[in-house]
Amino acid sequence: MDTNTFLAQLQAAVRQLQAQAETELAPLDDFTLNFKPSPERWSVLECLEHLNRYSRYYNPAIAKALQQVPTQAQNASVRYSWLGRKSITLVQSDNGKQYKTVKHMNPVGGNLGREVLTEFREHQAQLLTLLDAAQCADLNKKVVPVEFFRLLKLGTGEALEFVVRHQQRHMQQALRTKQQATSARLALAV
User: What SUPFAM superfamilies does the entry give (predicted)?
Assistant: First the structure.
C-alpha cells in the first residue's frame, strides 16, 4: 500500500478512536467506567490505562524514529517484515484470541480515575501529529524498538500500524465492557 493511503487510513482510525472516547466513554459515570465483568477482566478505565502505558512508550519511540529516518521517495509502498506482520495480526480487533499482557503493561489493581480518559485523548492527539510528521519519512526503516524486547525493531510504518490496531482492539473491549456494565446495572434495578 502506498504511504499516503496507509497514513490516511491510520489517521481516520485515530479520529474514530477519538470520537468513540468522546461520545461513548467520556459521558460514563464512575460505576460504568470501573465495572469489571469478572475479576480477571478489565474495566473500561483499565483498557484505556493499558493503551496509555503503551502510548507512553511508543509515541516517544516513534517521534524519535521519525527524526532519525531519511525522507522517502514520494508515495512509496509500505513493506512489512515477518515481525511486523505477526505483531499487527496479534492485535487486530477481529482476532478473537486473548493474550496475556506483560506485567508492567497490565493495569489491574490500579486506582484509576477520569484522568485516564484525559491522558488517552492527549495520546491520540500526539499520534495524529506523528502521523502527519510521517508523511515524508521512510516508513520502512527499522528503527522502532519493540517495547518488551528492545533488540527487535519494527519499521516506522509497522510501529504506527501496530499502535493504531492495538488501540482499536482495546477500544472494542472497552465498549463491550460498557455494554456489560449497562446490563449489570439494569439487572440490579430489577
Answer: DinB/YfiT-like putative metalloenzymes
